[in-house]
Every structure is written in structure tokens, then in C-alpha cells.
């Protein structure tokens, strides 16, 4: 049988990825998520997940989900605007809004869908989106799909953003940033960003995927961390990381949330999240706000890891969050380093372009409050053997 030209191009493209050490593969997790996992038939000490508080397999969340599934079944059965909006969804939205100190919140099935909803609903062809160059891919894709003009500024260069905002007066404007940048672990300067948005009459969307549960008073996120309030703030938290479940939630002014209900295609045209997940999320909120001890332990682990890696001569990112990148440079080199750690039974992912800029391939170490100091010591021993 003759191979089509289209299939031949795919094969050639895959071969090019393999030659560039850029081909990705999936591992198979055969256990519950945690710091000790069974993956591909082997036990590992994991520094791979975003389960920052160790809630992904917490028995209280499991019990809440099981109880709700027993009472309400496994599926929502319809979109929110038909008959799929359940009491569990409604309850979680109200609880989350109170938690982050905003008037109202809206639950989505994924963070990708939430970012698409906000950006495409608030700006269109006549508007402009201003985005940090290290933003998550979902924010970039949302800007493109909105058909607004997309203006990207160098990472953290808020003077450049100021000039861009000043040069585009009048039209609907939205500034979009990660709260904690997912591959570098550093924080956005949200106070200065809000100041610029106030001056230039722009929305500020903060995707706090990696900050909610970790930062701020009782883990309430980056806005709490900086003690910020403004009607032009749009706060987004994903719920599969520190929250330990799945989905995402957007919080803001009442009119903003109502506008999303009426206009956001990724909310209107999809089946609602299973009610049992929302019930587990309500329990997750209770666990998060009571987890000050876990957050303090997590902070100590971050400091211990950074001190040890710096003493060994590794190049680290600037952030002090649970995301700790070790910058290596080349694809082959970072894959070799990750393979060396595997010999110690330590699982740390190698992150390569296009996820990160060219020549900045890295190990992305993520810490959890479920790690012990001895776990970090083992990682440091393995890194010392590999050598910078």
C-alpha cells in the first residue's frame, strides 16, 4: 500500500524531533499521585508533580468524592445552562469566592478552558491583549482565538508594557500574566501590573495556577500574598495542582462572572464537571485554608534544596516557590542528567523547547509538602554525583 504524502511528512517530522532529542513520551502512573509513586513498573521518589500540598490522594478528599458519587452519580449529564449545574458546583463557587475575597466565581472543567473563556469573552477584533512572553500556552492560544491584537513583552519588562499600553488607547485592553511562572517558578509583579492597568484602563487577568494553595494568607493565592483588591482584577486558579482535584475557577466582579456565563463558549458548550469533583473541591478548600503547617514545611524544603544546589554550583532560577528549575542548556545534556537521577530511583522531568526557550532546557524540580527533608537530601546526593 502506498504511503500518502501527508503521512510521510508526519514520519519525517517525528524523525526530526527524535534527532533533536525533542521527542516526548508518556510514562504510565500505576499508583496514586504522591512523592512515592509506581511508574512504568518501578518505584520512584518523585519530584514531578504539582501536588504542592499532598492533597491529590488525601483521604478526606477521597471520602468527599465517594460520598457525592454515591448520592449524585458519576456524571453531570448536561451543560450548566441546561440542567447540569449542580448544587455541588454552586456551593463550591460560593465557597471559593469567599475564600479569595471576590464577589463571585465560576467553575470550569480545565484551566485551558477557563483562560479561553476569559480572554475571548472580553476582547475581540477591536481589542488588544498584552502578554508576558513566558505565559502559559493557554493564555497565548486564548489571545490568538480572540482575534484581538496580541502584544507580547519581554518577561517581567513592565516598562515595555507601560509603553505598549500607552500606544494603544481607547480599545478594550486586557493584560494577561501567570501569577507564578510555571517553568521558572518566579512571581509576577502583580502590584505594578495592577498600577499600570489602573492607569491605562485595562483588565488584569492573573492565572494563579501555581500560586493558589501555596501563596498568601491561608493559601488564598497571589492576590492575598500582595494584599491586592480591584474591580479590574480577574483571578484564575487551577484545581488540579495544590487543590489536588481537577478543573479551574475564575473569580471577579459579579458583572464579569455573569458576562462569562452568557458569553464564554467553553462554559456554555460543554457538559458540566461531575458533581463529585466539585464536592471534593469543597473539601479541598477546607484542607488548604488549614494547611499553614504544610506550607511552612514546604518553604523550608525549598530553602534546603536551593542552598544545596547552589553549593554544588548548579544554575537555578530566581524564584523561591516549589517550582525549582535547574538550567542545563542543551536537550541531550538535560536528558542525560535526568537519566542519571533515574539510576538513583529519583524521577525529575527534563523540560525542553518549545516549552522553554531554545538553549534553556532544564530539570524542573517540584516540591511537595509531602516530601521529607531526607527526600531532598537524596535528590541532592544524586545531583552531586551528576555534577554541574
Short précis:
The protein is of the alpha/beta class. The protein has helices at residues 5-19, 59-72, 80-84, 87-100, 111-122, 137-146, 158-166, 190-200, 222-226, 254-263, 265-268, 275-289, 292-312, 331-343, 373-386, and strands at 36-39, 42-46, 104-108, 128-132, 149-153, 173-178, 203-207, 233-238, 248-252, 323-329, 346-347, 350-351, 361-366. The protein folds into two domains: 24-53 and 292-386, Aspartate Aminotransferase, domain 1; 59-289, Type I PLP-dependent aspartate aminotransferase-like (Major domain) (Aspartate Aminotransferase, domain 2), CATH 3.40.640.
Identify the notable features of this structure and list them briefly.
388 residues, globular, Aspartate Aminotransferase, domain 2
What can you tell me about this protein's structure?
It is a single chain. The protein is α/β, with parallel strands linked by helices and 388 residues long. The chain has two domains: 125 residues, Aspartate Aminotransferase, domain 1, CATH 3.90.1150; 231 residues, 3-Layer(aba) Sandwich (Aspartate Aminotransferase, domain 2), CATH 3.40.640. It contains 15 helices and 13 strands. The strands form three sheets. A seven-stranded mixed beta sheet has the order 3-9-8-7-6-4-5, with helices on both faces. A three-stranded mixed beta sheet has the order 1-2-11. The longest helix is centred in the last third of the chain and has 21 residues. The chain is globular, with a radius of gyration of 21 Å. It starts with a helix and ends with a helix. The relative contact order is 0.16. The mean pLDDT is 95.
Amino acid at each position: 500500500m502506498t504511503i500518502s504524502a501527508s503521512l510521510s511528512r508526519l514520519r519525517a517530522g517525528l524523525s526530526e524531533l527524535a534527532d533533536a532529542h525533542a521527542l516526548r513520551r508518556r510514562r504510565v502512573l500505576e499508583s496514586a499521585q504522591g512523592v512515592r509513586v509506581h511508574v512504568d513498573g518501578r518505584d520512584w521518589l518523585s519530584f514531578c508533580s504539582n501536588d504542592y500540598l499532598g492533597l491529590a490522594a488525601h483521604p478526606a478528599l477521597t471520602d468527599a468524592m465517594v460520598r457525592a458519587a454515591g448520592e449524585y452519580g458519576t456524571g453531570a449529564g448536561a451543560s450548566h445552562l441546561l440542567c447540569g449545574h449542580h448544587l455541588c458546583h454552586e456551593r463550591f463557587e460560593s465557597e471559593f469566592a469567599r475564600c479569595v475575597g471576590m464577589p463571585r466565581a465560576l467553575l470550569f472543567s480545565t484551566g485551558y478552558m477557563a483562560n479561553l473563556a476569559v480572554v475571548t469573552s472580553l476582547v475581540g477584533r477591536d481589542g488588544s491583549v498584552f502578554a508576558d512572553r513566558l505565559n502559559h500556552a493557554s493564555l497565548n492560544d486564548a489571545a490568538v482565538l480572540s482575534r484581538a491584537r496580541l502584544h507580547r513583552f519581554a518577561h517581567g519588562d513592565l516598562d515595555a508594557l507601560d509603553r505598549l499600553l500607552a500606544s494603544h488607547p481607547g480599545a478594550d485592553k486586557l493584560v494577561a500574566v501567570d501569577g507564578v511562572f510555571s517553568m521558572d517558578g518566579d512571581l509576577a509583579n502583580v502590584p505594578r501590573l495592577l498600577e499600570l492597568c489602573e492607569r491605562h484602563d485595562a483588565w488584569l487577568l492573573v492565572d494563579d495556577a501555581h500560586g493558589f494553595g501555596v501563596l498568601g494568607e491561608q493559601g488564598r493565592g497571589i492576590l492575598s500574598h500582595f494584599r491586592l483588591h480591584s474591580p479590574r482584577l480577574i483571578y484564575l486558579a487551577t484545581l488540579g495542582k495544590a487543590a489536588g482535584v481537577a478543573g479551574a475557577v475564575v473569580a471577579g466582579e459579579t458583572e464579569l462572572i455573569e458576562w462569562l456565563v452568557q458569553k464564554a463558549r467553553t462554559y456554555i458548550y460543554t457538559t458540566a464537571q461531575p458533581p463529585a469533583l466539585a464536592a471534593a473541591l469543597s473539601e479541598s478548600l477546607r484542607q488548604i485554608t488549614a494547611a499553614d503547617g504544610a506550607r511552612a514545611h514546604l518553604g523550608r524544603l525549598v530553602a534546603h534544596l536551593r542552598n544545596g544546589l547552589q553549593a554544588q554550583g548548579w544554575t537555578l532560577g530566581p524564584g523561591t516557590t516549589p517550582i525549582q528549575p535547574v538550567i542545563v542548556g542543551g536537550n541531550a545534556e538535560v536528558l542525560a542528567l535526568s537519566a542519571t537521577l533515574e539510576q538513583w530511583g529519583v524521577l525529575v522531568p527534563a523540560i525542553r523547547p518549545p516549552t522553554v526557550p531554545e538553549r534553556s532546557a532544564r530539570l524542573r524540580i517540584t516540591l511537595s509538602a509531602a516530601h521529607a527533608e531526607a527526600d531532598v537530601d537524596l535528590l541532592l546526593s544524586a545531583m552531586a554525583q551528576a555534577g554541574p
